[in-house]
Amino acid sequence: MNGHGLVATGLVCGYDARVILKGVEFRLPPGDFVGVIGPNGAGKSTLFRALSRVVRPWRGSVTLDGTDIWSMTPRQVARKLAVVTQGASPAADFTVRDLVLLGRLPHLGRWQREGPADNAAVDHALRITGISALADRLVGELSGGERQLVTVAQALAQEPQYLLLDEPVAHLDLAHQLEVLDLVDRICREHGVAVCCILHDLNLAARYCRRMIMLRDGMVVASGPPEEVLTPRNIREAYGCEVLLGTNPLSGHPLVLPVRSAQARPSRSGLHVHVVAGGGSAGPLFGLLLREGHWVTTGVLNQGDGDWERARALGIPVLEAPPFSHIGESHRVQLERWMRQSDVVVLAAVPFGPGNLVNLQAVLEATRQGIPVIMMNGDSRERDWTGGPAGKLLAEVATVAERADSLEQLVQLLRSRTSAEGDASSRGGSHRTSR
Amino acid sequence: MAKLRRTILLIHLAVVTLLVGTLALGVGAVAIPWIEVLGILRRYLAGGPLETAGPHAVIITQWRLPRVILGAVVGGSLALAGACFQGLFRNPMADPYIVGSSAGAALGAVAAMTFRWGWGIWGLGPVPVFAFLGALLSVSTVYLLARRGGRIAVVPLLLAGVAVSFFLSSIVSFLMIWNTRQLKPVVSWLMGGLGAADWARVKAATGYGVVGAVVLLWHARDLDALALGEEEAAHLGVDVERTKRLLLLAGSLMTAAAVATSGLIGFVGLMVPHLVRLVVGPGHRLLLPASAMAGASMLMAADALARRVLVPAELPVGVVTSFLGGPFFIYLLTRRGWR
């Protein structure tokens, strides 16, 4: 098995004097489905060009089933390896059938007419891609999605063992993206064709690829199964982007949610906002505050709490307690210290029970120390699960705290504070009395 | 079905081409009835005695036959060169004129005439050889100038073609003024005409033309693949660089065949592949032979017209083709735009 597959070792190549790939290891075993991901300019398309014998490596090698592709003729390579390039086909005046028939080119002799085997391959390719009905239409009359299916059909007519697709779903709408990738997946599973796909949508990549490699600046950042490659750390390193990582509830695949660019983090104008949340009450609050440029802390939260997960994914410092445990006095001391350091405390619409009542007591303490508190008015959901004490505390906090009925209002309140903060010369203290 | 349609179409075209050819034989200062033309041709092909057949037989076999055949070869070569350049440059505006190969061939030919270079290769005179070299040099230059990231865009192509053509034309003019003794033959040759047709020219043009045509037909499928883009063609197993070099050679050879034997005849290479493509579609395995025959028919017909319009005087056939081709080019520019 060792020699099989499409394998690149120590691949260094580029254009003119510009080096693009700086030592890339790549392996597409027979029948596998490998994704190539990475930011623009990472060298993904160049990798494809090197793999498909278009760009000659400066160093390193590419082998196809054990044979160096540069010791093969372009024809020999094209019989085993088909490539779907990016962008629409410019050959608008070909009929679909004639265009797909071009896929037979590497199998046909110079003066040879296409025979029954070629027509069968074309029919088969049209059938698999579901465009038999379009066979006699002109390519120029088709929609973008249909055109992409035609290029895939052409590649299939080559009867390849390896199929490379460069962003096959760019410019396609959601339904067509799934249609094309489902098709490619079927080609891989049912027809045993090894597939390698450049994809920009990490969630689609996670859903379809069995393995992936992540490129950045011509080097492999990570490779392996999607769960190992798609970590917030890898993504931050490759894309310079913070993401929230979850699990696709339908399939169990990683689910990536871009949050913001990591570069936006060091914001000088933002406030230090401590959020008291829990049980999912924070909702989109964390993300919103981060986008507004504030420095956010939260707690005390039990490990495993929905808000705890969210805060961790966003890289927000969390004051945490063990799962399902009472939040005790030791935490309260720490929490009050954190609150004293913050400019504003935001009390989300948290329901309070015996386990987290300490948080509410700390908030009340904060109001007494003159720390501004903004209280989010949640829905009319019951918030007192202590049989009295929490309700009383809430009412007491409500007398001194500012109220925000919506996230929008909260943003406004914080913005007005930010500008007040800008006027104040020192951080903390003085401005708190100004309102 | 498609194969049958293709064969029928090509047979039709072949019949039309032969028909146009025989009709053209009858046209000229002396009109000869078609029936008589056929009779003379039959006897000529059978190798019968012509001396006794009267003056019409002499006119047909000595004068008009080489001229009509040369017209067919030159028209076919220009159309094939046009189809080749249009496919290679992936651009409907390309033709031997636009891409500078005509100007290059003209310079080669005029230089050979001016300096009376006496040598040739493979039994060809110096004029076709230098026409070929000139065409090759100018097409390669334009190709390199117009290339931007692996693609040939319309504007750079037109600009590079025009610039190279003007530059080469200025050298041609210089050579003409510099050596006025050769002025007259050079000028009448440059105007583009089939008037000086003889069997030697027919042989030279046919030799180049057949070689070029074979190379082109050899690469018909590769031209189809190149229509998708160079990288896409490579993925289909086409050795792109080698194919491009061979196609540039073939296109230059066919331009040289035409220019060296009949001067500058414009627009055939632009118009014919275009019109043919509208009928037969973009596949080169049909487009190339169909263009060759259509080009042959068109130039034979244009030459017949050129002989007929100002009897007893003759128009250079280049005047007729340019008169038709200029408006056609403008139509293309406005219709297909500068995409």
Please summarize what this structure is:
The complex is a heterodimer of chains A (435) and B (339). With 435 residues, chain A is an alpha/beta fold.
Provide the structure class of chain A. alpha/beta
CATH topology of the largest domain in chain A: Rossmann fold
Q: What is the CATH domain class of chain B?
A: Mainly Alpha
The average pLDDT value of chain A, as a whole number, equals 86
* Order of the strands making up the biggest sheet of chain A: 6-7-8-3-9-10
How many structurally independent domains of chain B?
A: 1
> Which residue ranges of chain A are poorly predicted, with pLDDT under 50 across at least 5 consecutive positions?
425-435
Biggest interface, CB < 8 A: A-B, 32 and 23 residues
Total of DSSP H or I helical runs spanning 4+ residues of chain B: 14
CATH architecture of the largest domain in chain A: 3-Layer(aba) Sandwich
**How would a crystallographer describe the biggest sheet of chain A?**
6 strands, mixed
Structural classification of chain B: mainly alpha
Can you write the helix and strand succession of chain B as a string?
A: HHHHHEEHHHHHHHHH
Question: Which CATH first-tier class of the largest domain in chain A would you pick?
Answer: Alpha Beta
Number of helices of chain A: 15
Distance between the termini of chain B: 34 Å
Strand count, sense and barrel status of the largest sheet of chain B are: 2 strands, antiparallel
Considering the protein shown, what is the CATH homologous superfamily of chain B? ABC transporter involved in vitamin B12 uptake, BtuC
Strand order across the largest sheet of chain B:
1-2
Name the beta content range of chain B: under 5%
